Backbone:
């Protein structure tokens, strides 16, 4: 800030951007299996990491579309908000299998959902430890609004 001014000075740095920074940083979401056949300790809890918030939106749009296809192994995908989702599946590892099939360019496994094709190289998942205790990674502050993306 210029000491004689009450207004901040504009940066002339080539790295200065006039857009929202949080749209270009990694984004994280919890994804929790809620299959009625499993007890709470048997539910899989996944951490989904995406290259950007927009990539996370694309992935969950695709996952939601896939969950409504005939023969889907993952169903009933529901958001609480963008960083917290639930799904139903008799096998919680179907999430990892889905991402594996995306990376292996096997769209027939997931109904060739365009948004899932677009997620290749931009989304990854990791299973969170649920053996006895609870290990919850603390997510960074993020814009969790769905803003009409999933109506």
Residues:
């Amino acid at each position: 800030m210029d000491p004689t001014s009450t207004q901040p000075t504009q940066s002339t740095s080539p790295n200065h951007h006039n857009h929202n920074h949080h749209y270009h940083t990694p984004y994280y979401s919890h994804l929790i299996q809620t299959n009625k056949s499993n007890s709470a300790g048997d539910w899989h809890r996944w951490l989904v990491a995406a290259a950007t918030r927009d990539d996370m939106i694309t992935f969950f749009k695709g996952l939601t579309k896939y969950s409504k296809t005939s023969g889907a192994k993952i169903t009933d995908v529901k958001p609480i908000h963008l960083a917290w989702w639930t799904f139903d599946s008799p096998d919680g590892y179907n999430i990892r299998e889905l991402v594996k099939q995306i990376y292996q360019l096997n769209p027939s496994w997931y109904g060739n959902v365009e948004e899932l094709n677009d997620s290749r190289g931009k989304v990854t998942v990791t299973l969170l430890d649920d053996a006895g205790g609870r290990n919850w990674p603390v997510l960074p502050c993020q814009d969790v609004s769905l803003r009409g993306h999933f109506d």
In short: The first strand starts at residue 27 and ends at 33.
